[in-house]
Amino acid sequence: MSYWTGIATQVGIYLIAVLGLSVLCGFTGMFSMGHAGFMAIGAYTSALLSIHLSMPIWVSVLCGTLLATLIGTLVSLPTLKLRDDYFLIVTLGVGEGIRLVIQNLADLTGGARGLTSIPGGVTIWGVLVIAVLAVVFIKLFLSTKFGRNCIAVREEELAAKSVGINIFRYKLLAMVISCALCGLAGGLLAHYLNYLTPTLFNMTKSEELIIPVILGGRGSLTGTIVAGLLLLPLPELLRFGSAQEWRMVIYGLLVVLVITFRPSGLMGNKELTLQNLKKFLAGFFLKNRGQAPDGKGDSV
Amino acid sequence: MSGQQAYALEITDVCKNFSGIQASKDINIRVKEGEIYGIIGPNGAGKTTLFNLITGVYAPTSGSIRFLGTEIAGKPTHEISQMGIARTFQNIRLFGDLTVYQNVLTAYQHNLTYSFLDGILRTKKFRQQEKKAEEVCLDVLRRIGLYDLRDQHASKLPYGQQRRLEIVRAIVTGAKLLLLDEPAAGMNEEESLELSQIIKDIRKDYHVTIVIIDHHMDVIMDVCEQITVINFGEMLTTGTAEEIQSNQAVIDAYLGVNDDAED
Q: ipTM of the predicted structure?
């Protein structure tokens, strides 16, 4: 596998996790700083099952996904009724807690030294197919009443309750979807890298997963994907020298800039579609010729 | 539902205390099915508190609230909504980032019974129900006069239209009781006249019972069959528009009695 294929595979895997977070943070409006922890559960579960029980990797990845979802649900039950900022603090603690547990179960997980000789088998094509399926799934989800109700929860909780939406249920649903996709991404990562260390899943990773959602536009699936494709390769590309340290500074700067100048994210809640693109270009050219853009050029 | 007269809403001896402050005291209101009922009173009289008690935002400290014969006091807001009570808000609470149509479609959600899997797999059940939803929502938008604005962002609508959208959103939930919290606030005379007509039309077209809180006397006096006046959390009186207008206690509450030496 060439260097570039490798980067593409990793970007695809992390994008699956980012898609999960877009449902939770982008569409339901709940911020999490701990989803790398759910990736870790998926990754370690899948790796250990395939090492010790010689499970085929698709079975072990599935088990990892399920366990991440289960633990995510158990954590959510007592915490989803908290106010959003408290929820964020809880996820921060849970994410770090999961990592520390893995680090200290050295007999099982290899501790800080890491877990090696994990069976491989994840290819770029496999990742690509799963990533596309995840996008299709979320797209379909968003145009059902379940997706719409999640968005209503983000927009205005009391109004959502007043049209009969059980807020708790839809927050839980968003949490389940996000944990499942993060667990899935973790499992894929394990069988792609063939090794795991707890530092792969620290708080910085959680931040890296959520930043594309914020930058791309909360409520824009295409915006999140575009931001993900731009930002996710950076850790690999900036691997050498002091670039690595500067990366988080740049991220921080980007977030501050976006929050200051475009608080709804690059795409806001607009989707990048051919139709919107045409309208935007038409409006752009008309404006440049000094004509009124017919009131339609204001999209995107 | 007792005997000859069916009540949509029966509020009996309801009190609400906020750590010592009595926001509602011994409220007794009976709203007949199909009636348009008005609740008026000066600012801070406890009118919105009453709506919050009915919709489960607060639980009453004591007393009973029955909707079509079923006790609802203290139930969670979403359950009360699912039973058939919908409301609008004094300080508008739309899904601001969504379009007018999406606001309405979202509110229709309780009438969609398909499962999660139906939705993802786009089964026949999903497609049929979504099609029906679209028809119903567009129809209500057309009747209330927001059809042409359906693709606008809710937060970008003029104030009066936002209030109207809140009413549409309440209707499509399929509610049997609508609670309108100051629907005419910020409207000029012409707009509030139009609103009076809309409220009457809604009752006729959707067979709903309506309770209105407002300061706009013209709207209240025009559309309400029964009116209750509240002041300092207590009921002053109940009656028809004429009875209210000639009631000395009401006039005192609004214009003030000549005992204000202390402030």
A: 0.89
